[in-house]
Every structure is written in C-alpha cells, then in structure tokens.
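Sample intake — Peroxisomal 2,4-dienoyl-CoA reductase [(3E)-enoyl-CoA-producing]
Collected from: Fundulus heteroclitus
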Amino acid sequence: MELPEDVGSDDCLASYTHIYSPDLLRDQVAFITGGGSGIGLRIAEIFMRPINLTVVFLDRCLIKCFLAVLFFKCTTTCADSKRNAFFFDTDAAGNFLCPASALSFNAFKTVLEIDTMGTFNTSKVVYEKWFKDHGGNIVNISATLAYRGQALQVHAGSAKAANDAMTKHLAVEWGPSGVRVNAVAPGPISGTEGFRRLGGSGAEAAGSFQSIPLQRAGNKTEMAHCTLFLASRASSYMTGAVLVADGGAWLTSANDVSALLGIASSKSAKL
Ligand code: COA
C-alpha cells in the first residue's frame, strides 16, 4: 500500500495528494492547539490545503494571549465571512519517560495540567464562546498508554485516560448543542517530539517495530488524515469515539519495565 507523503522534520510537504475532496472543509474555521510542531503542525498544514478553510493555530509560547486574541479573531472570522462551522483540534501535550517511583509530585501535576487541564480549559472556552450557539466539532489527540498500563508513563497515561473520559462526557453533554467530540489515539509517529523523547528512533533501529502488526511507525500525515476524517462530515454520526491509529501497536508492543528502563537511561531521563 502506498503511504501518504510526509517529511520527518517540521517542514511543509513538498507535494500532497488529496485523499478526500479538497473542498471537504469549505467555509469552515479550524483552531488547532499544539499547532507549532509535530502532528499538530502537519494537521494545520493538511487542513490549510483545502479551499476556503480558515486555520488558526496556537502553540504554548502563545498561550497567554490566547483568551484575549483568539476568540476575537475566530468569531470575527466566522461572523464576517459567514463561515458556517467551526471545529478545533487539541494536540498540546507534554511527556517523558520516568518510573512512577522517581516522578516528582510536580512532574505528575505538570503533565496533567498541560494534557488534561489544557484540553478542558480550551474545550470549555470554545464551547462558551462559540459552539454553544453555533455547534462545532472537537477532535482531541489521545494515546493508547493507559490501555495496558504502559511502564514509565503513569503521568501521560493518566492524563490521556482522563482526556478519553472527557471526550465521552462532553460528547454526551454537548451533543444536543450540535457539538461532536471525538479523539484520535496515535501510536509511534516518526518525526515528532514524542517519538524522539520516548525512544522511538532507538526502537525502530533495534527492529522493535517488527512486533507492531503493521511493522512500522506511523507518519504525521496519516494522523492528519484521521483528524480530517473526524473533523469533517465524513464522520457526521460519530461522537464520543476514540479512533485508534497505531498500526495495532498497543495490542502487541513490549510493555516490559526492564527494556523500557534501558531506553529511558539511554535518553538521560531522570531516573
Ligand atoms: N523526567 C522526570 N521528571 C521530569 C522530566 C523528566 N524527563 N522533565 C521534567 N521533569 C519534572 C521537573 O523536574 C519538574 O519537577 P520538579 O519541580 O519536582 O523538579 C516538573 O517535571 C516540571 O518540569 P518543568 O521543566 O518545570 O516543566 P515545563 O512546563 O517547562 O515542561 C515538560 C513540561 C516537563 C512536560 C516538558 O517535557 C515539555 O515541555 N514537553 C513539551 C513537549 C513534549 O513533551 N512533547 C512530547 C509529547 S508526546
């Protein structure tokens, strides 16, 4: 099977072949958190390629001006251009490998604040300011870490499990307002900060990905396509769902503490 184009860096794609109709998101507005690098950046790029879509993306360095500026810009854009829908993707995350016994209280809290509080705060503000009256669509970026209790990941696994619960709770509460809430759960995705921090390159070089059913890492464009599906009318009857896009990795990959400690040590994590 031919894979979608991607590059390992945060550069834009040299070429891109649409897999959906280019006007799938016509006249909509997208707001993407964590859009400054990695999966979030590729989502922003792929979303910008369709005709007549406005994309607003945000990264942590801009977070302080977010509440003041963003909704002025988004609501103005929506109102002025009569754009009739609005959706957002949230991909802000923080992670590193660390055993629970070595994890400080502040480290756990920091990751929860970025991943879980960040998702809730943004979802709530978007809902109050726009979705409540106009409907909309939220796509969260999740993870499979909690499915089997991944070693060295109690902080990120707990945070993303909370986000999966939040996806369902908000889908139930906000569905009557015309708001869909879904999530994509990526596996190891090359060319991302997570891949570098969590030992993806070493695992790939060591042949560990042979144990993944699809026997390779995913790429950022593939994650953008999953997000595009959930953000578009192609998934119009889906809400409260987590779309796992990991090549089957969570089913078969090693979850062995000793092996993962080896990766963590070689990455100079605080152990
Ligand atoms: N292992 C264990 N603890 C760590 C750590 C690591 N590799 N990196 C940071 N911490 C701890 C710090 O020691 C601190 O705890 P302390 O005050 O008890 O010493 C706490 O986490 C907060 O660290 P700090 O650097 O002040 O927070 P930050 O907000 O600047 O950074 C992180 C947030 C820690 C999540 C950082 O890794 C980050 O910015 N990541 C963003 C990118 C990313 O992780 N992408 C991958 C997504 S999969």
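Post-analysis note: The longest strand covers residues 179-186.
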